[in-house]
């Protein structure tokens, strides 16, 4: 039985109605009363391992990365990355740090002042890069970057693009060495890194930003003339994580989905959500359709020759 207040990593059999194959508790030291361990978020998986970020609470939280056997959930290795005070000044936090996997290397943004690269075979650290952290956060007026912990690193052609939650900067690091290539703080409300298209990093928050991936300079959105972002004014504001699918950027707001086509270098007609009884939210592609996790449910939008309302 699962213990109240614990986090678990589980493996389910999709061909057997989700039956449990294995379950790993966060009590990784063998003491079931030790509740200082917690899984940070969803793992990444390849044929050899299930890789997940771990945090151990204490006076100074400690960040780890661990690998489990996909067949039986046995711990294969666990590696300590760093320890530091959190931006919340010791107040209770629920964090959700995610890993990025590319060509046998794991990239982890700890949101504790460091980014690390680890070998998937044994967890050996290839490099750790430190960055400038923000001053302690006034929890009554939290800056936008405080909400970036659901933003994993983006790997692109030898670069690791990082948006830490404890820093106002967006960074580009050299993937083999961890050396800083550039940093920018001009996309001041950016929370999500959606990916790279046409040589531009797309970042979203209250607004939608395009950043030259080689130089770190803010560039104009497709079809927007000399504008630095979309929209230039204060409205509309983004609502949830957007999506980069092929050459098209989907950016959700409360009542519309805005689309930017990099192939034609223009903004497309927005998709009206309010007339479909849907709000914006976190987007993900789903077998040719678009799945939206809203504040109170899930909606599935798919194209129809008759422009029917989406399945709900």
Low-confidence stretches: 305-312
| Structural category | mainly beta
> Helical content, roughly?
under 10%
Tally the helices: what do you get?
A: 0
Share of residues in strands = 35-45%
- Head-to-tail CA distance between termini: 34 Å
Q: SSE string, helix = H, strand = E?
A: EEEEEEEEEEEEEEEEEEEEEEEEEE
Cα-atom Rg, whole angstroms?
20 Å
Question: How can the largest sheet be summarized?
Answer: 5 strands, antiparallel
What do the pLDDT scores average to?
87
Question: Can you tell me the overall shape?
Answer: globular
Strand segment tally: 26
Account of the 3D structure:
This protein has 312 residues and is mainly β. The protein is built from no helices and 26 strands. Strands 3, 4, 5, 6 and 7 form a 5-stranded antiparallel beta sheet that branches. A 4-stranded antiparallel beta sheet has the order 8-9-10-11, with no helix packed on it. A 4-stranded antiparallel beta sheet has the order 12-13-14-15, with no helix packed on it. A hairpin with a 2-residue loop joins strand 20 (243-245) and strand 21 (248-252). The chain is globular and about 55 Å long. Mean pLDDT is 87; it is low at 305-312.
Task: Explain the layout of strands and helices.
Elements: E1 8-13, E2 19-25, E3 37-39, E4 44-45, E5 50-56, E6 62-68, E7 75-83, E8 99-102, E9 105-109, E10 114-119, E11 125-130, E12 154-156, E13 159-162, E14 170-174, E15 180-184, E16 192-197, E17 200-204, E18 208-212, E19 218-219, E20 243-245, E21 248-252, E22 256-261, E23 266-272, E24 282-286, E25 289-293, E26 298-301
Antiparallel strand pairs: 1-2, 3-5, 4-5, 5-6, 6-7, 8-9, 9-10, 10-11, 12-13, 13-14, 14-15, 16-17, 17-18, 18-19, 20-21, 21-22, 22-23, 24-25, 25-26
